[in-house]
Design a protein that fits this description.
single chain; 340 residues; mainly beta; Porin; 2 domains; 8-stranded antiparallel beta barrel; 1 helix; disordered N terminus
Length: 340
Amino acid sequence: MKTLFLKSISSIIALTAGANLPAAEADQTPMNEFRLGPSFGFNVTAKFLRLQGSPPATSPAAGPLVDRNYPDGYVHVDSSGNSGNQTWNWGYQNNAQYNATASTINMHNLSVNKESSPAASDDPNYGFELSYLRRLVDCGPGYFSVELAFGYNRLEVTDNSSHPVSATVTTDSFPLGAVIPPFAPYGGTFSGPGALLGATPTRATSLASGSISGSRSTDADIYCFRLGPVFTLPAGKKVHLELATGLAVAVVDNQFRYSETLTVSGISETRSGSGGGTDAIFGPYVRGAISYALSPSWRVFAGVQYQPMTDTVNQSAGGSAVELDFSQAIYATTGLSFTF
């Protein structure tokens, strides 16, 4: 995709350069300039954040007549209305949940407290930039212009690595009494009959370490607008040096997807989701450039732009999220310009 994009930009520049446009007269100062060329973005990072886990099951204080759901099982109200504070409408996933000594079935919930996820980038992310400069006033050996620019870059970041997490494990223990549970995996029904389980649990919480694995990705279309003054200093007959500054506005259209598994103390929970949104962020920019005259009307140029934006772009889906950081963004451009 990136190779095709670069070929397309090259074709646009070639067609523009070949257009039959009048050159500026040698004795006439050109007042307008259009520029077009590819853009290469650096230091825009994505950080993938947290998997919250399932919401905690209903508190034991709610009593027996409620449905409780867990990543590794369920305890629901049965057709008898949980007569005698017992239900046959329950299920569990593995035999390790059976505590024979205490004669209980243990159900669990997971909640992430802290995840260690390093920031990732897509350097360079490719795009293009189109700008217009209007010459305003001479100043000593140089002159001032005003610059209006539009740029587009595509950011694609994927994380397939595993990250450590710190999590809280909530354990609800349901009494079996004298009942020996069926081997896991087991699932009872509303109508029953089936093995009876006490419908009111006792609850305990503990801290544990684990990991998040799977795949998370973000695809962002970045539309940037810039406006500000430019000082141009001729350095010989054909070479011009530039220094520009001003205000930049970036509109970020971001799509976020994930499919990941949280594993803590042998308990696993898999979740997936996707989401999208559009945000606008603001910040200053400083740009330096150099250009070389090919003819009275045509020039080639190259520049580097530092564009820090302190606001992050956040997109969440379910219990996971992505954070895009533009605070150290740098863009390099090159291409052709036409003056008249």
